[in-house]
């Protein structure tokens, strides 16, 4: 008995380092992903997508959405870094999951891919509304486009659309241009206009609208044109990334698309490339920045002073690295700015980058004294937000640091000394005249 | 009427001049010193009007030294003038000593403020 317990303890000791497989500050790519399905046949119909994820090193855990043993956390620790919900018709999630626990999951900095479809339940709509995305209220409505539909649409009601209005962002969609249009068949959603964290990745063409394809239109549709978003993305302030799609078929294995009215016929639709690149972005393989500390010092010195004087010359630098999926590479950009800020920026300068990820500039402290902050606020589309600041006081001149012997003032110096000499001569003359 | 005013002006000027010639020499020396100090101050003001008030503290210091010493000289003149009933009992040496000490303090302050 003793031997058994000892060997179990030894084995668990060896396993302990392996248990720390999750994303961390040094390695921000997610590792373990929970996939919720409402139908296990999705594993085979979407096999290209899932196999692609597995080949990139992700640990996928497939579960039915109403499995009663579902849990995101155990003993206060999250078991998964990412969540994929391909269960558009599920009314209630099993186990300890509900829309609040999913909201907490995103609040902890973890990522989510959510897909609705033609029969989206209220639960899925509720989760999407939390992220700033509003699905069409009519539950039987689909996106219909009579000019951008796919020629291979068998039903003929133009609900299978070929969309190519992608967001222009290399960090979200990869450097390679997606040539073929992306096939989409599902519900439309619009973005909450007051939410500035959510943006469209794939929008519908101006001729699209959202309506029930099998009944006549009784009134003009509410969602039309480019206001309809097909796939949207949100990057929260804690840098958690959420992808919300209106179609589950977007992720499925499909090939061959020809857009109506265009000559090009593509053997492969752009879906595979689109969802692959999007999943790279959402699981933090791309576009994740890390900044070192802010460094500032006077020109000619290397130490950081505790206080600056007005009209000092100083140099400022910060290091920014970008995660490439495997290692930290130096980040290169020409739009990182630093502010010298006290209630409003007195100095705003663009930092110049060298190839090693060091951004630096130099400027003169303004002629105002008080407590300032060096602020770097970097919010670029698709990249993590950098919000760095460092406080530094600025003092006026000491009484012995003012300019002396100013040439303009020589007449005044001369006048003072002349007066003193005149006083001296006068007192002699006054006393000894006869 | 016009002729008489010019004649009055001339008479006034002559009477003033003859009265002034009669003042004692030490008072005339003090008057000369006051004129010199005020003249120096006026030169400085003209210079500032030309160049601008950049080192304002230097300008103030220069003008104040001239005006201050002029004021002290006027006080000396009042106290030393024998026709002045108010200071009949004040020894002129005491007045001159006050004048010297005040001037020393004035010029100390001026040099400190000159920058």
Automatic annotation (TrEMBL), chain A:
Family label: Belongs to the DDOST 48 kDa subunit family.
InterPro entries xrefs: DDOST_48_kDa_subunit, OST48_MD, OST48_N
Segments forming domain OST48 N-terminal: 32-282
Organism expressing this protein natively: Camelina sativa
Topology in membrane: Single-pass type I membrane protein
All copies of domain OST48 middle, residue ranges: 296-434
Bilayer-spanning residue ranges: 410-432
Metabolic or biological pathway: Protein modification; protein glycosylation
Localization per record: Endoplasmic reticulum membrane; Membrane
Principal location class: endoplasmic reticulum
The organism's taxonomic lineage, starting at the top: Eukaryota, Viridiplantae, Streptophyta, Embryophyta, Tracheophyta
Subunit structure: Component of the oligosaccharyltransferase (OST) complex.
Record bears the keyword Signal: yes
Free-text function comment from the UniProt entry: Subunit of the oligosaccharyl transferase (OST) complex that catalyzes the initial transfer of a defined glycan (Glc(3)Man(9)GlcNAc(2) in eukaryotes) from the lipid carrier dolichol-pyrophosphate to an asparagine residue within an Asn-X-Ser/Thr consensus motif in nascent polypeptide chains, the first step in protein N-glycosylation. N-glycosylation occurs cotranslationally and the complex associates with the Sec61 complex at the channel-forming translocon complex that mediates protein translocation across the endoplasmic reticulum (ER).
Pfam family, one: OST48_MD
Domain of life: Eukaryota
Protein name stated in the entry: Dolichyl-diphosphooligosaccharide--protein glycosyltransferase 48 kDa subunit
Region forming the signal peptide: 1-24
Keyword annotations from UniProtKB, A to Z: Endoplasmic reticulum, Membrane, Signal, Transmembrane, Transmembrane helix
Cross-referenced PANTHER family: DOLICHYL-DIPHOSPHOOLIGOSACCHARIDE--PROTEIN GLYCOSYLTRANSFERASE 48 KDA SUBUNIT
UniProtKB/TrEMBL annotation, chain B:
Protein's UniProt name: Dolichyl-diphosphooligosaccharide--protein glycosyltransferase subunit DAD1
Pathway(s) this gene product operates in, as recorded in its UniProt entry: Protein modification; protein glycosylation
Gene: LOC104786002
PANTHER family, per database record: DOLICHYL-DIPHOSPHOOLIGOSACCHARIDE--PROTEIN GLYCOSYLTRANSFERASE SUBUNIT DAD1
Residues that span the membrane, as ranges: 30-50, 56-76, 96-114
One Pfam match: DAD
Function as written in the Swiss-Prot or TrEMBL entry: Subunit of the oligosaccharyl transferase (OST) complex that catalyzes the initial transfer of a defined glycan (Glc(3)Man(9)GlcNAc(2) in eukaryotes) from the lipid carrier dolichol-pyrophosphate to an asparagine residue within an Asn-X-Ser/Thr consensus motif in nascent polypeptide chains, the first step in protein N-glycosylation. N-glycosylation occurs cotranslationally and the complex associates with the Sec61 complex at the channel-forming translocon complex that mediates protein translocation across the endoplasmic reticulum (ER). All subunits are required for a maximal enzyme activity.
Subunit composition and interactions: Component of the oligosaccharyltransferase (OST) complex.
Sequence similarity: Belongs to the DAD/OST2 family.
Topology in membrane: Multi-pass membrane protein
Location in the cell: Endoplasmic reticulum membrane
Keyword Magnesium among record annotations: no
């Amino acid at each position: 008995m003793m031997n058994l317990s000892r060997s179990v303890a030894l084995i668990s000791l060896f396993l302990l380092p392996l248990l720390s497989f999750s994303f961390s500050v040094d390695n921000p790519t997610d590792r373990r992903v929970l996939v919720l399905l409402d139908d296990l046949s999705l594993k085979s119909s979407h096999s290209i997508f899932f196999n692609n994820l597995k080949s990139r090193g992700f640990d996928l855990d497939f579960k039915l959405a109403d499995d009663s043993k579902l849990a995101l956390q155990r003993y206060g620790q999250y078991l998964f870094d990412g969540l994929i919900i391909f269960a558009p018709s599920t009314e209630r999630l099993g186990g300890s999951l509900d829309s609040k626990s999913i909201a907490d999951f995103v609040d902890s900095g973890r990522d989510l891919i959510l897909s609705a479809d033609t029969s989206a339940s209220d639960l899925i709509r509720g989760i999407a509304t939390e992220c700033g995305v509003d699905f069409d209220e009519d539950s039987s409505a689909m996106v219909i486009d009579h000019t951008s539909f796919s020629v291979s649409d068998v039903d003929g009601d133009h609900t299978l659309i070929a969309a190519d209005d992608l967001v222009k962002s290399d960090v979200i969609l990869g450097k390679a241009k997606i040539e073929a249009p992306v096939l989409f068949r599902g519900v439309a959603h619009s973005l909450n206009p007051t939410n500035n964290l959510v943006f469209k990745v794939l929008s519908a063409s101006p001729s699209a609208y959202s309506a029930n394809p099998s009944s006549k239109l009784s009134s003009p549709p509410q969602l039309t044109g480019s206001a309809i978003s097909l796939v949207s993305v949100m990057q929260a302030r804690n840098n958690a990334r959420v992808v919300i799609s209106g179609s589950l078929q977007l992720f499925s294995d499909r090939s061959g698309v020809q857009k109506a009215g265009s000559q090009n016929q593509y053997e492969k639709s752009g879906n595979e490339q689109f969802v692959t690149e999007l999943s790279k972005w959402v699981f933090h393989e791309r576009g994740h920045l890390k900044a070192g500390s802010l460094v500032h010092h006077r020109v000619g010195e290397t130490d950081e002073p505790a206080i600056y004087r007005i009209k000092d010359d100083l140099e400022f630098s910060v290091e920014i690295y970008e995660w490439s999926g495997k290692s930290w590479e130096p980040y290169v950009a020409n739009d990182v700015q630093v502010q010298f800020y006290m209630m409003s920026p007195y100095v705003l300068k663009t930092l110049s980058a060298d190839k090693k990820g060091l951004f630096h500039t130099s400027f003169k402290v303004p002629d105002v004294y008080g407590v300032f902050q060096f602020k770097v606020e970097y919010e670029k589309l698709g990249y993590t937000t950098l919000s760095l600041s460092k406080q530094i006081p600025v003092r006026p001149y000491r009484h012995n640091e003012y300019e002396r012997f100013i040439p303009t003032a020589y007449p005044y110096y001369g006048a003072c000394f002349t007066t003193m000499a005149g006083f001296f001569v006068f007192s002699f003359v006054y006393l000894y005249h006869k | 009427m016009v002729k008489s005013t010019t004649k009055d002006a001339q008479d006034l000027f002559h009477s003033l001049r003859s009265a002034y010639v009669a003042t004692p020499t030490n008072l005339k020396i003090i008057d000369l010193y006051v004129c010199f100090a005020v003249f120096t101050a006026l030169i400085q003001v003209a210079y500032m009007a030309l160049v601008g008030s950049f080192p304002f503290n230097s300008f103030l210091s220069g003008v104040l030294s001239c005006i201050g010493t002029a004021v002290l000289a006027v006080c000396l003149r009042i106290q030393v003038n024998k026709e002045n009933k108010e200071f009949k009992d004040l020894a002129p040496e005491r007045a001159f000593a006050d004048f010297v000490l005040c001037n020393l303090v004035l010029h100390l302050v001026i040099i400190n403020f000159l920058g």
